[in-house]
Write a sequence for this structure.
């Protein structure tokens, strides 16, 4: 049987919770500290489940293809409070932020096109881009410079006749880099100058740790409406990854008309998930403040312990809930396999996401890992103690 060559070029995501090595380790009785996947352990607001319990319609019917009015209204009001104003026709509900990204890329990319993305990047960007017949042209970064990338000269030097868009995660996954307002403005200027789409994947917008005002590329939508596409989701913001509710936002009418074709092709997003997710937007600012404080505490714990491990290179992330770090090992992928197959400390080990798949540049990220600080602080302390011992044992073999 023949399969699409575009799909064959795509690897499996390293952030799989049920990775075969992990399954085998657990079968041997090994406890694994999962730092490899961004699945928050913070409680989902009860309003979500209350909405499900109170759903009493006699028929669970299809929802409208753009999304149910209650959820679109809730999203619109959320942005209104951030002083960013969108018409209801400029917001489509999607099956998570992932579908929003897929629809956006399918609308704007063709065979041979390129999209500029800072590396390291969320590995599924690779799959989404390649299945459109396009490729990622990476904006290079390095751990020694804190993975920062927002330099006009660096970005403009990569633009060519094949470039269709710039896509950034802000705050960053996997790096935790938070763009300044001036850096965001520069990216908008570059997109307008070169007639490019600028896609802001903003799944982690609420998670910034230095008291900054919440930012979005939606701020620039009135001035650069043809360029700006915003990707949003309830997954991380409300610790509701299983709800699979996101949204696609743009003032570009032609783009949204094309996006509607995909929305109609998949008929609708799950009705009950939309109803429950609309209730999430009733949560007050105290919820976000408490969650932000908890993640900051975890970030500080992880970074303090990482700093005690000789040879590790990292920068304290400004946002999201990830740390990208270069480890003093020859190959992070092999090291991770060894951690699961051969190493344990009192019956425990650590699982991280190796960095190689987060780069488009061959050979880069070989000794880097992404760690998600989605565990409680005492568990992070223990995980870093295990990692420190494991590096010593691995390099002494």
């Amino acid at each position: 049987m023949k399969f699409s060559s575009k799909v064959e070029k795509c690897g499996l995501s390293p952030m799989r919770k049920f990775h075969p090595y992990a399954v085998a380790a657990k079968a041997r009785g090994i406890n694994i500290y999962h730092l490899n996947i961004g699945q928050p352990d913070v409680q989902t607001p009860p309003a979500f489940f209350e909405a499900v319990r109170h759903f009493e319609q006699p028929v669970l019917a299809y929802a409208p293809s753009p999304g149910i009015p209650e959820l679109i209204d809730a999203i619109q009001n959320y942005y209104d409070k951030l002083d960013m104003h969108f018409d209801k026709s400029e917001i489509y509900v999607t099956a998570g932020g992932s579908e929003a990204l897929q629809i956006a890329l399918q609308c704007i990319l063709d065979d041979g096109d390129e999209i500029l993305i800072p590396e390291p990047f969320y590995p599924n960007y690779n799959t989404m881009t390649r299945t459109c017949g396009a490729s990622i042209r990476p904006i290079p970064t390095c751990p020694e410079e804190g993975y920062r990338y927002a330099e006009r000269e660096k970005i403009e030097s990569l633009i060519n006749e094949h470039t269709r868009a710039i896509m950034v995660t802000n705050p960053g996954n996997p790096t935790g880099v938070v763009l300044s307002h001036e850096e965001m403005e520069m990216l908008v200027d570059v997109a307008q100058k070169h007639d490019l789409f600028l896609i802001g994947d903003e799944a982690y917008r609420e998670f910034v740790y230095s008291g900054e005002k919440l930012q979005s590329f939606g701020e620039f939508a009135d001035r650069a409406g043809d360029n700006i596409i915003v990707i949003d989701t309830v997954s991380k913001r409300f610790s509701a990854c299983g709800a699979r509710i996101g949204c696609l936002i743009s003032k570009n009418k032609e783009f949204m008309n094309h996006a509607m074709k995909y929305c109609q092709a998949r008929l609708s997003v799950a009705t009950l998930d939309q109803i429950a997710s609309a209730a999430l937007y009733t949560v007050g600012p105290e919820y976000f403040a408490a969650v932000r404080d908890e993640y900051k505490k975890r970030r500080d714990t992880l970074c303090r312990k990482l700093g005690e491990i000789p040879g590790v290179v990292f920068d304290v992330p400004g946002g999201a809930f990830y740390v990208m770090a270069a480890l003093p090992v020859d190959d992070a992928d092999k090291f991770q396999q060894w951690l699961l197959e051969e190493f344990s400390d009192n019956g425990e080990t650590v699982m991280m996401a190796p960095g190689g798949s987060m780069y488009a540049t061959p050979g880069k990220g070989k000794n880097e890992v992404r760690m998600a600080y989605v565990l409680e602080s005492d568990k992070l302390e223990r995980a870093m103690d295990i990692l420190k011992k494991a590096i010593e044992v691995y390099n002494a073999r």
